Structures are given as structure tokens and as C-alpha cells.
TrEMBL record:
It comes from the Bacteria. The keyword Methyltransferase does not apply. Keywords: DNA-binding, Transcription, Transcription regulation. It comes from Vibrio ponticus. This is LysR family transcriptional regulator.
């Protein structure tokens, strides 16, 4: 059995498995029934298998077809993913995997998705939570991107391209009794527990401690909406980015100057010349920049 198959023949084979009717396949691929029959005959010789058996209910696939149909479908999916040099997001049809921390998705995810969807209406977007498993996949070469904060622990194989700078801030409900950071320290602190963000926050708290401002979390919560509800309905305070202070809340500045966190888009360095990554970066930068104004 050789491997000199063309994509059109595989497409006919997959359509035959789907439709079980030569005439319907011919209509679907824009050929005559005679041409489809000739392709199927060629495939029978190639694979040394009948492929489809005619019954009173139509053509039924053989065990060979049922066993290998997923492989034929994968070949077509891979072929469809091939991008021309003149990249155009309007023609994208494959899955685009985006990772982010909960705080990022909660505040920017909808805006980023809608901006991407507007330019790539046929693509499938998968917006996933960043975690250790995702980190491993990205490092091993998964064709995905991460939107988040610069992470000095990521290896050099991951390129972290700067999007914008953001300022950290504590926040409380509008009518919270505390007005300054010193007053705030006596109240309970609730913190987001998410992989990646804690890598940024804990060094920040160490820096505060070195200045005599020791902050200890009273409760850790993974869901940011829960944290916002706790803050708006109690004397708790929490930590976020200054540009995304929740509604009915206000910021209380940190006792540090010139403290910015670098928001980046990260991806495998082998993909640095991929036009899709350039497009994702440009849209991401535009969305985040518009939110900072």
C-alpha cells in the first residue's frame, strides 16, 4: 500500500462515510456520480479493501473505514489549517487557543474575544484558564498564546511580548471607612488564588514588608466575582489592577511609587514569525490600550 493519495480523494472518502450515497457525494464535491465512482474504485485498489458495502439501506462502511475514518478526518483538518503567506484572519477556520488568568478573563476576556471575532468570524476560539498543565503544553510547543503578566520563571523558549503596563491597587467598597493604606491594614484582606498571578503578588507583598507594611491574606478565593461580592458587602479589601476597579468600589493606592506590572502576550518562540501571532498581538494591544484611556 503506497501513500500517493491526493486530498480530493480523501475528501470524497470522508464524504462517502458521511452521506453513504454516491449521488449525494457527487453533489457535495461538485463532480459527476461517474467521477466519484472512479475515485472510490481507485481507493479500493489502493487500500485493498471494499471500503463500502451496498445494502438495502445504502452503502455501509467496512471495518477498515470505521477504524481509520478519524485519521482521514484529521488529514483534512490539518490540510485546512495550512495558512497562505498572505495571512487573512477572515479566512481562518481552525481553533485558536487563548490562555489567561481569571482576573484577565473577567475584566478583558469579553472585549478581546469580540474584537478577535469581528476580524476572524469563521475561527473557533477556545479561552482557557492558565494553570501548570497549560504551562507545560505551551513550553512543549502547543500552538497557543497566553495573555497575562510578565513571568520571569518562564523559560527562554517562551517569548513574552509586552502589551502594556498596568498599576496594582487595593480596592474597597465606596463607603468603606478606610481612606488610606495605613487605615486599610487593620481590615481583613481577601486575595485571588490563581496560578501565575500569585507569582506577581507575593514578591509585591515582600516588597511592602521590607518597607514595614506587612500584609497577610485572611482568605484566598479562586473566583474573582466572589471576591468582588465579599468586598462590596463587607469591610474586606482586595487587590486588582487600577484600571479595572469593580463597580461601587474605589481604589486605595499602594505606598510604593513607580510600581507597574507588565502585561504581555506569551507564545512559543518557534512561532515568533507566525502571522497569526502578529495578528493576535495587534488586536490584544489595541483592546488593552483602549481600556487604559
Amino acid at each position: 500500500m503506497g501513500n500517493n493519495l491526493d486530498i480530493q480523494s480523501i475528501f470524497v472518502l470522508v464524504k462517502m462515510h458521511e452521506l453513504r450515497n454516491v449521488k449525494l457525494v457527487a453533489d457535495a464535491v461538485g463532480k459527476t456520480s461517474s467521477a466519484v465512482s472512479k475515485i472510490l474504485s481507485k481507493l479500493k485498489l489502493h487500500f485493498e479493501d471494499p471500503l463500502f458495502i451496498q445494502t438495502r439501506k445504502g452503502f455501509e462502511p467496512t471495518t477498515f473505514i470505521e477504524t481509520n475514518i478519524s485519521h482521514f478526518e484529521a488529514i483534512l483538518a490539518t490540510f485546512d489549517s495550512i495558512q497562505p503567506t498572505d495571512f487573512d484572519p477572515q479566512t481562518l477556520k481552525q481553533e485558536i487557543i487563548l490562555y489567561g488568568h481569571a482576573l484577565f478573563w473577567d475584566n478583558f476576556g469579553d472585549k478581546l474575544y469580540l474584537a478577535l471575532r469581528k476580524e476572524a468570524p469563521h475561527a473557533k476560539f477556545s479561552m482557557r484558564q492558565w494553570n501548570l498543565e497549560a504551562r507545560t503544553r505551551l513550553i512543549e510547543g502547543e500552538n497557543s498564546v497566553l495573555f497575562g503578566i510578565y513571568d520571569e520563571t518562564l523559560p527562554q523558549v517562551i517569548q513574552q511580548k509586552a502589551l502594556c503596563n498596568i498599576s496594582p491597587a487595593f480596592y474597597v467598597r465606596d463607603d468603606h471607612p478606610a481612606q488610606t493604606f495605613e487605615e486599610l491594614k487593620q481590615y481583613p484582606f481577601v486575595i485571588t488564588r490563581n496560578p501565575g498571578w500569585n507569582d506577581v503578588r507575593y514578591p509585591l507583598f515582600e516588597r511592602l514588608a521590607s518597607l514595614g507594611h506587612r500584609i497577610t491574606a485572611d482568605v484566598e478565593v479562586e473566583n474573582t466575582l466572589t471576591i468582588e461580592n465579599i468586598v462590596t458587602n463587607s469591610d474586606h479589601f482586595s487587590f486588582t489592577m487600577s484600571r479595572v476597579i469593580p463597580k461601587n468600589c474605589r481604589a486605595i493606592g499602594l505606598p510604593l511609587t513607580n510600581l507597574n506590572l507588565h502585561c504581555v502576550m506569551s507564545f512559543h518562540r518557534a512561532k515568533q514569525n507566525d502571522p497569526q501571532k502578529t495578528w493576535l498581538y495587534n488586536v490584544g494591544e489595541r483592546v488593552l490600550s483602549s481600556l487604559s484611556n
